[in-house]
Amino acid sequence: MKTRRRKSGNRRSGDGPGLSQLGLWRLGLAIPGLVAMVLVILGTLPIGVPFLGPVLPAFGLIAVHVFALQRPDLMPHWLAFSLGLLTDLLSGGPLGLTALVFLGVQVLSASQRRVLIGRPFLLGWGVFALVALAAAVVSWIIACAYFLDIVNPAAALLQVAITVTLFPLIAAPLLLLSHRMTGQAYA
Fold first, then answer.
1. What is the pTM of this model?
2. Does domain 31-181 have CATH number 1.10.1760?
3. CA distance 141 to 19
4. CA separation (Å) from 2 to 5, 6, 32, 33?
5. Every domain of the chain and the residues it spans
6. pLDDT in tens, 20-58
7. Percent share of the chain, pLDDT over 70
8. Burial annotation 9-32 (CB, 10 A radius, 16+ → b, else e)
9. What are the residues facing 55 on neighbouring strands?
C-alpha cells in the first residue's frame, strides 16, 4: 500500500504556522483593544451642547461593555482598567475613577454573557442603558467622595443620555467586528 506525501514547499515538517501568519493572528487579537482605545480618545473630545457646555459621551464604556459581553477573552480586566486610566488622563478626571468603573463594567458584562448572547438588540440596548446608569451613579458617588462635596448629577445624567442614545451607532460596528472575529453570522 502506497502512502501519499504532501508537498510542503519550503516548509520543514514541524515548523507550525509561519511568522507572517502568527503576526496577523496576534494583530487580530489586538484589534478590539485598539478600537476601544480610539473610541476612548474620540469620547474625550467634548461635544458642545447649547446652554449646557461640553459633554463627553462614554464611547469607551460602550466598547468595554460590548467586547466584554461578546469576546471577554479580548477585553481582559487589565485592558478595561487601562482604558479607564487613559480616559481619566485625557479627560482630566480623578485618576482611577473611570478605571474602576470600566473594570466593574467588564466584570458585570462578562458575567452576563450567557444570559444576553443571542438576545434581540433592543434588549441589549436596554441592558446597556442600565449599565451606563449604574456606572454614572457609581462615578458620581466616587466623585462626591473625592471632592468632599455634592457634585451636580446633571452632567452625569446628560452623559448617560447621550451615550445611550449613541449606543447603536457605536455598538453595531463593534458587534460586526466581534462576529467577524469569531466567524459567527451577524443577526
1. 0.81
2. yes
3. 49
4. 10, 13, 48, 50
5. 31-181
6. 555 555 666 778 899 999 999 998 887 666 655 667 889
7. 77
8. eeeeeeeeeeeeeeeeeeeeeeeb
9. 47
